[in-house]
Amino acid sequence: MAAESENGNCNAWAARDPSGVLSPYTFNRRAVQSSDVALKIIYCGVCYADVKWTRNMQHDSKYPLVPGHEIAGVVTQVGADVKGFKVGDHVGVGTYVNSCRDCENCNLSLENHCPKGVYTFNGIDADGTVTKGGYSTHIVVHERYCFQIPDGYPLAKAAPLLCAGITVYTPMMRHNMYQPGKSLGVIGLGGLGHMAVKFGKAFGLKVTVLSTSESKRDEAITLLGADNFVISSDTQQMESLKNSLHFIVDTASGDHPFDPYLSLLKVGGVMAIVGFPSEIKMHPASLNLGARTLSGSLVGGTKDIQEMVNFCAENKIYPEIEIIKIDYINEALARLVNRDVKYRFVIDIENSFK
Q: Which positions carry the signal peptide feature in this UniProt record (predicted)?
């Protein structure tokens, strides 16, 4: 594929400015160091973070910007000190590629909360270079931030686990949302929400999807296996659910009220937020009167990520995906903004750069 920038050893697509429009680009990946793993990228999931940073919505984008942090591929080279991987292994890389490896959080396998953590794209790595993500043909990472994908698990479906999957799995594990027979509400039914439903059913929970879109009812019930579907703007339907849920996972990033959802929790119930609305407004009584907890969460540490991937393989949990080629990415990002995807775009990197 023709390159529009300097020659390099890695083909990619990059955004050049806040328009967010991506086009072909080449750059150089670093050489493999003693603790590194190099992988050929086979698939890369498409996350709303790719929209945010290609369009400079966080006001810190560094162009040219190569997005993508749901990476699945095959190991092509390992450094001399690498013990956990070998050439030919199926592996994944998620939302971060480095951390200090020495702080309290890193020592607790909470690298995602390391103050010196480095994001997979648009981050500043230890050597001062700007990281570039998975909309590219290969990547080199320290082995700590690389994960084994069990044999037989489809690489295309593994990719979304590295962000969408772990983002909902982490708070579900932290707050013991794996107790069979208990009840879970899932707010929003996109890339994250549909994974929360799948995990909830695998844990043996009674799952209710809370959505503003009636059009999602059938798929929530028939495709994803939810037990109940409620239109959150319907006060009568919401009233019927009051004080009935043990847990809620809130995946909605748009602004929305919190009091109506908190009222659905039983005494001692937990609501975990994984999206990023612009603000959270609620009455203290929504927490105090039911001894409820409102909690935040952000992806997961390396131990949790590998555990989650293994759990998905053992329980045959697969994201619902739409596979695309890289030359469709601008249309795909526009569709993602319009919530026109069921439920995760995955780029066929291997066949896009032939």
A: none
